[in-house]
Recover the amino acids of this structure.
């Protein structure tokens, strides 16, 4: 009987029920909400499902993120090794490779003025930087937090790792990806508040055709120009443009398919689960996390507003030829932000087609956010 009693006692002690805290239960609830939003409402399920499941796992079994130094047997947890690839900036760079292979830069090439809208939407980043400094974060932490304003998860992770802000990498990444998935909810009210119905009904002229030579030269020229000015952007901008060159060259179809599909999905699984696993109750439920989430929302709203307002300026200068709604797509959430511009425009006029026009600022926003990240790295002397 003593043997049976001891055995049952050991089994009970090994269950998660004996170790779950109130904080763990809260985070498990948050994970379930994320899964609901992803599965029931389709909010960026490719991102939210692995993130939410990583969140679920680490709050049930914390040792899944334990480092080799902390483990009694010297072996780290499964998701710890995934997370190391985030810290080393490998997974964010590979995400950019896949994004480049999937993205059509044609609208941006056809309308280079879209770069201005993409640049305007980066205002949210600088607003968040100043706000984070005012809230007491260090200059490096403020820079890492501010990138959330670009709605760019991989760049947020990349910069946090480079600036050695791994302590807040989890909240930053979760906030960035959450706001990316909530673009259809956050952006429309801001867009409608800042535009009139007449402005939302503006139809833009069809974009000019872009030659194959232009498509091939674009990633090469952008890489040379941006990386010469800011070499620290090479891991992100370089991989983005390499993926696009795969696509546009037409001679490496196998590499394009691999980067855009198989590799991309593998990386999303590794990155999503490891990011979710950084949200243990101990690391996530604190005042700094609340500040980061608030700053991220404010930054994203400011970025959207700045893009729309600059779009209104371009509309006025062009005498009504630019629909201000495409300015909201200047954040980096590709292609979700461009789809939102199309949706809001079509609500005002079902015959209005803004998607391709919005893709220009959307792609410019991806490049712009990477450039801002490189600028912060240069300011702080990080290579």
């Amino acid at each position: 009987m003593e043997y049976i009693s001891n055995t049952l006692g050991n089994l009970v002690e090994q269950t998660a029920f004996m170790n779950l805290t109130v904080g763990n239960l809260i985070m498990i609830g948050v994970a379930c909400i994320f899964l609901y939003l992803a599965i029931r409402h389709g909010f960026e399920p490719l991102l939210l499902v692995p993130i939410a499941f990583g969140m679920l796992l680490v709050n049930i079994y914390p040792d899944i993120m334990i480092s080799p130094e902390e483990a009694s047997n010297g072996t780290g947890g499964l998701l710890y090794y995934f997370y190391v690839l985030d810290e080393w900036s490998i997974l964010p760079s590979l995400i950019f490779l896949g994004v480049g292979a999937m993205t059509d830069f044609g609208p941006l090439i056809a309308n280079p003025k879209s770069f201005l809208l993409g640049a305007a939407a980066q205002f949210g980043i600088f607003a968040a930087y100043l706000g984070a400094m005012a809230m007491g974060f260090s200059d490096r932490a403020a820079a890492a937090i501010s990138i959330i304003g670009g709605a760019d998860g991989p760049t947020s992770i990349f910069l946090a790792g480079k600036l050695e802000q791994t302590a807040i990498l989890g909240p930053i990444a979760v906030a960035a990806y959450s706001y990316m998935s909530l673009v259809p909810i956050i952006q429309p009210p801001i867009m409608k508040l800042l535009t009139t119905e007449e402005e939302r009904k503006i139809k833009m002229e069809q974009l000019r055709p872009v030659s194959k030579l232009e498509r091939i030269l674009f990633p090469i020229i952008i890489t040379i120009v941006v990386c010469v000015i800011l070499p620290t952007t090479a891991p992100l901008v370089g991989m983005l443009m390499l993926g696009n060159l795969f696509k546009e060259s037409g001679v490496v179809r196998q590499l394009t398919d691999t980067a855009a599909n198989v590799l991309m999905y593998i990386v999303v699984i590794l990155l999503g689960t490891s990011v979710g696993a950084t949200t243990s109750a101990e690391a996530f439920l604190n005042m700094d996390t609340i500040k980061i989430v608030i700053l991220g929302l404010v930054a994203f709203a400011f970025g959207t507003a700045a893009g729309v307002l600059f779009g209104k300026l371009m509309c006025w200068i062009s005498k009504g030829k630019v629909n201000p709604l495409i300015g909201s797509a200047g954040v980096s959430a590709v292609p979700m932000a461009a789809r939102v511009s199309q949706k809001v425009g079509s609500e005002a006029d079902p015959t209005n087609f803004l998607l391709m026009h919005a893709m220009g600022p959307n792609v410019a926003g991806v490049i712009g956010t990477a450039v801002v990240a490189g600028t912060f790295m240069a300011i702080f002397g990080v290579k």
